[in-house]
Each structure stands twice: as structure tokens, then as C-alpha cells.
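C-ALPHA CELLS:
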Amino acid sequence: MNVNCTNFQRISRLYLQAGLAILFLLSISVQGIAHEFKWKELAADGSGDHSGSLPDAEKLFWDYDAKGDTLWFRFEVFGDLPTGAFGLNLVCRIPGRHTSNNWWGSNGVSYNRLVTVWVTGTPPSSYSGTIGIADAAGVNANNFRSLKSNNIAITADAKKDDVIIGFPRRDLLPDKEITGSSMSINIIGAVGSNEFWSDDIPNSGNPAITLRFPFCSVKAPDVELFEEVRDRIDFGSSLIKQYSVANEDISTESVKVHPTVEGEGAAAYRVFPAGPIELAPGESQNFDVIFLPDRHGLRAARLDLGLAAAEEGAVCFGSLPEAEIQLNGSGLGLAGQVEEDIDFGDVGINALARKRVVLFRNEAS
């Protein structure tokens, strides 16, 4: 079922309820944000194509705060902004096999995510109403907050005739749906009152934003380093395995690598270089894992690659959250101890004693 303007009116009246205390906290997240906006124009619309006295859309801007992992959008309108009651939508299509609907406004694009802000209140940020994100199934069931509810920060500015909204990127595009270091999302905007649709930005076409993420991978020559080491390893010798960490990000984000060995057998392993080492996009670093058994028997440990975004608070995807390699090695010790003294007898100064031969044999299996 496609939602029409009548449904818009009915549903918005049903949902004109929300805690002002919650929205007050959201306003703080906008007002006190350390992120400096770098607005990029997503779409523009001509004047005079709106409905009656309702808002007339002019431009839609966007910005992505990678540090806070937050998406921001700014709606501009022609004329005065009715800050006491207004409606905004972001009509989105994210990649993947998702059920979709056709938008009910003048721009009939196909969408699978709908961001909704149908509110009343006072500027800059004391608003309540229908606030949230829904998928196509939620919209069909008249549940415009089927995925997330009251998760959107709102700031309206009557002097500038604009409204800024922001929400966590994960609420629109979950981590599990990120498949590479950049992804595009088709988005158009819509404005109106809290009850009625008025105008789309734009009236035709389906513009897109592109998000770029640090995306990293771990490359090792073995499925598991030291998995089933069956060779004889004499005490004092070493076994070296090498692995590589590559930053495959195509944008500008660096990652930090700080490998450490943990677990019961950690004392038997060394990692060189020890790190932390910063990798710019496209760079890679080889690491040597050295097995120095400290006693006989299996020495099991795990190698934590310590991958993180180089800049504190930045987002990092791929294998970064949990990157561990299991380490298993078998050390061979001496079968026993030397239990007898070796007597060289009486030897004169500057004279040579008879040679004694001592045999050491490693009898470990």
C-alpha cells in the first residue's frame, strides 16, 4: 500500500506525542557538536510548485561527520519557515535487496528507507511528533518508526528559514550492510506541515550521497599461524612466520596497528616490529611472529592485531573490530639433567688436560 496525503494527515495526528525532555537532549547534541559542518548541496527545487500556504522547498544539503558517525541534513525553504509546525522527509534507497515502495509526492522515486520528522513545537529544538526511520514494510503498516524512534536531532532557525536534522549513520545504514570503503545512497527530500505533504527536493531525478569509510583487511600466508607445527624445534632455535596488514581505504583515513600476543603461551612468542604503526590509505606493513618456546610442550596463544582508526573516534570497518590469529607451537625440551660431575684431574699450569666428550640428546617426541 502506498501512503497518500490522507494517510500522512491521519498518521501524523496519531503520533503527535513525544517527550520534550528527550528532544531537549537531542538539541544539545546539535548545539554542542564539535563537528564543523561542510555542507554539500544534494538537490535544489524551483519556487512556486508547493501546495497552498505550506512550505516551498528550495535546497537540500548534507554532511557526514565521520568522527561522530552521524549524518546531517539541512532543508532550506523559500519564504518564511513555519517553525511552530512543519514536516520533513528523507526518501532513501540504500543498496541491497530490500522491499521498496514508490514515493507519494511529485517525485515518484522508489525507496526502501523513510526518515520522518512531522512535528509541532517551538524553535530551536523543542519539538514532538512523529520522529523516526522506517523501512517499506513499516510504512505500509503506517508505522513510520518501525526501525528507529525519536533518534533524530532537530534544530529550526526562523531567521535563516532552514531546519537541520541529524541521526546516527547506523540507523539508516547498519554496519552489516556496508560492503566496501564507499557506498552511495539515493536520497530526495520532502517538506510540508506536520499533517500535509507540500513539495519535493527535487521534483524529478534521484540524487545520491556517497559515504566513505576506512576499510581494512588482514592478509596472512596461513589460515592460522603455527596451526599444527609438527617439525622438531630444538631448544634455542626459532620459527618465524610473517603476515601483512593492509589499509585498503580509498579515502583519506589512516589506521593504526598495534599487535600484541595474549593467552597462556604468550611468553613463547615475539612480534616485530612491535608497533603501534600508522598506515595511510594504500599502505601495508609486514610483521614477523617469532616462536621462542620457553619450555617443552604445546604453547598456545593468540595474536591480537590491535587495529583501530588512527584518529581517535573515527569509524573503521572491515576486520577491525576483532582481528585475532591463533598461535600454536610445540617446544622440545631436554630429556633430563646432567647428573654427574666431570673431573679433569690434576692439570699443570699451561698444560692441556685430556679431552672429555659430553653428549646432549633431545629425546622429546
